[in-house]
Amino acid sequence: MWVAVESGDKFVSTYEMERAAAAKKDYERMERERPAYFKAIYDDIRYYAYRYTDYSDEAGGSPGVEAQVIEIIDRKNTYDLRMARVKEKYERWKDFLGRLDSASAEILHKRFELRAWVSEPDLTWACQNALKVWTKLEDEREKELDQEVWEHVVEMRERYPELFEVRSTKKESEKKQYNIDGKIISMLPVEYEAYRQSELERMSHHFPAASIIQRMKV
């Protein structure tokens, strides 16, 4: 049973609340699947291949080793970044419930987290009570996300100015829309790539390249 309520230009559906409340179980599932996923990454490793030339008896190492290390780091970091995002989503859901009156919070918690039955009138009433708080938090999150993305872009511009040598003829129409943490944000492809790389770099300290190379040799 889904319910949608609106007030003026504000609108929220129970589907959005359901996805936010489900973030806890999504995180727990990803946490359980993490070891198997990481193992699968290493199972995909293409092992060393040695080449011998006609001019020397020296073996040449596989040219794809470095690329594989980078790929492994990227895939592991991306997975952990997704987990962090899901966890943040559930924290926002708890913050949302904490700002509601106890009756509304109890109904929404029961319906979306416990997946228990709630009558449609009660659910509609609770959603109507929660509409103002929900939209306020969503608006705040959207502003925070815009600021976060902009800060990442500014940081990457300072570190890698050559990536941002965009000709003055670049037009607004060349921007593309990207889904970042559930929000659609317009930016140039190079700006999105810079944001993505900076997010991955934030978590790369968990997976030093040296340790990965060592594990690949085993």
List keywords for this structure.
218 residues, mainly alpha, two-stranded antiparallel ribbon, 64% helix, disordered C terminus
Q: Secondary-structure element order, as H and E?
A: EEHHEEHHHEEHH
Q: pLDDT below 50 for ≥5 consecutive residues: which ranges?
A: 205-218
Number of strands: 6
The span between the termini is: 53 Å
- Percent of residues in β-strands: 5-15%
Order of strands across the widest beta sheet?
Answer: 1-2
Shape label: flat
Helix content: 55-70%
Commentary on this structure:
With 218 residues, the protein is mainly alpha-helical. Helix content is 64%, strand content 10%. It is built from 7 helices and 6 strands; from the N terminus they run ββααββαααββαα. It has helices at residues 14-21, 23-43, 65-98, 102-113, 120-159, 189-203, 209-217, and strands at residues 4-7, 10-13, 51-52, 59-60, 176-180, 183-187. Strands 1-2 form a two-stranded antiparallel ribbon. It has a two-stranded antiparallel sheet with strand order 3-4. A two-stranded antiparallel sheet has the order 5-6. Helix 3 packs across helix 6 and helix 4 packs across helix 5. Mean pLDDT is 76; it is low at 205-218.
Outline the secondary-structure elements.
Layout: E1 4-7, E2 10-13, H1 14-21, H2 23-43, E3 51-52, E4 59-60, H3 65-98, H4 102-113, H5 120-159, E5 176-180, E6 183-187, H6 189-203, H7 209-217
Antiparallel strand pairs: 1-2, 3-4, 5-6
In short:
The chain is mostly helical. Helix content is 64%, strand content 10%. It has helices at residues 14-21, 23-43, 65-98, 102-113, 120-159, 189-203, 209-217; strands at residues 4-7, 10-13, 51-52, 59-60, 176-180, 183-187.
